[in-house]
Amino acid sequence: MLLETIDSPADLRALDGNQLAQLAAEIREFIVQAVSVTAGHLGSNLGAVELTLAVHRAFNSPRDVILWDTGHQAYTHKIVTGRRAAFATLRQAGGLSGYPSRSESAHDWVENSHASTILSYAHGVAAAIERSSAPDRKVVAVIGDGSLTGGMAYEGLNNLGHSGSRVVVVLNDNGRSYAPTVSRLSESLTRIRLHPGLKSVRSKLEEALRVLPAVGPLAYSSLQGMYSAIREVVEPPAFFESLGVRYVGPVDGHDVLGLEHTLRQAADFDGPIVIHVLTHKGRGYAPAEDDDEKCLHDAPVFDPAVGPTEAERAPKGYTQAFNEAMLGIGEDFPQVVAITAAMPGPTGLLPFQARWPDRFFDVGIAEGHAVTSAAGMAMGGLRPVVAVYSTFFSRAFDQANLDVGLHGLPVVFALDRAGITGDDGPSHHGVLDLALALKIPGLTIFAPSSNGEMSVMLRSALDLDGPAVVRYPKGAARVVPHGQVGAGLDARQITAGDGEVCLLAIGKMVEAAEDAAALLAVDGMRPTIWDVRVVRPLDPAMIADAARHALVVTVEDGVREGGAGAFVAQTIADLAAPPRRPTPPVLVLGTPTAYIPHGKPAAIHAQLGLDGPGIAASVIGARQNAETAASVTD
User: What is the pTM of this model?
Assistant: First the structure.
């Protein structure tokens, strides 16, 4: 196999066209086999194989800087930069990251998995290189697969054009992102515009016109006007070139040699240039090509002979519960609309979209816009539900705070994948949302602990006059009897203990708290357990009960600094204001303020002491510390 001979980008340059085609096929088969075992991003990587080979043949990485937006399309990049043997550990604890990773390779510059950022990185890297001792190094930014729907991409593009930075932007247009008009004429113009001979003739003609007596400036201006008119009429680059960025394309993204030739010529351009590359997401693997929704953008573990089944690909757990709740709510409340940022499938909104297409809005990878647009809808009398991953809520915090919160608007944020998410690593753990949401005045915060809570909490959130968050984890949801489902803004007491320890558990952590209580019972302790349900406003009855205990322990699947536990601790401490009695100490358990590597959620929770044994150990440790302190005082 050719693939076994490729250990670095240099190994690609000796291959001819037939060998490159063979290598591309082998890489696709390798990626399908690897992802079928570990799960991961499939369609996006299958579509970028030839593109990646061409980039690495045309440029000299890592001396030349290759930057990847939406790093989920970088598997081939990892393979040809010496990491093929590690793919058995892809997205496994201690193994290969599913995204570029600076700790893995000198070829990875940006640990990027949040889209639309790479042009800003490129602008900064190019500025540094231009001022370095090696200003001839090239900067290549690969963007696309939806990332050109994000506003930050246009900010970066604008500044590239303004600064004249020498950056080659490879726009991977796989039909899921911004796509300029495609025509045979524009393809012909591309070949002509890049031809070195024509560029030379054009430069000579422009110079000759400039020096013509009397009419030179007018003739030169007329020539430039002719260029502009042609571009406006027959070419899509008018948009790019109005920003000062040269446009070339479209180019066949599955023709390695043709794309390589285009890239080599573009590398000589003295300024920013966009190469518009047409690719097919999921190319070469029938199950991905036949997936109309997302070309198997991401895939679970599956049988590579048949691809993921419908059941394997369907939303599960809390996402499925949200899906079902939204359908019921949509029937009952015609003013409810759903908004998402390029994730109708992963957030479970496809059935809502199918049932009420005129009440569904997919704004692309533009979370900030989604939130402010929702604010406008709420101002007009609609009841918007904004469904995004928890990790992406941070991208819209300013809008949630000032555009929704400041105006007290009834917008509901449905934050999927809250807490430790696992295999996608530090960029995708949803551990900041509770801390962020608590900083927005008047925002009600719900955290379901079971499947049955989802519909109840969504309906409660929509009954409010102001904004609300419903945050829920990735994966399986507990199924509990109807009697174990709460109501309204009330907390739910699960067990009444002996007054020594009170466990206040949030969302998914309720199950872990119950496991801890069972372990503590072996030592003769009978903790009180509350399902907090609503982090703000906290149930006064729950707080009053907790304050009667010798020790209060809060447990959350989010950062403990400034998070829900800290909010509970402050609320209990406020009870100590005169003439109230002293309040108990509060032990806050949660995730550290750290970038937590990828791994299985259960294993990460165990490492962080957020499973049953870990919580029990923390309670015993706190009790022992209290006893030691008391004996010292005596």
Answer: 0.86
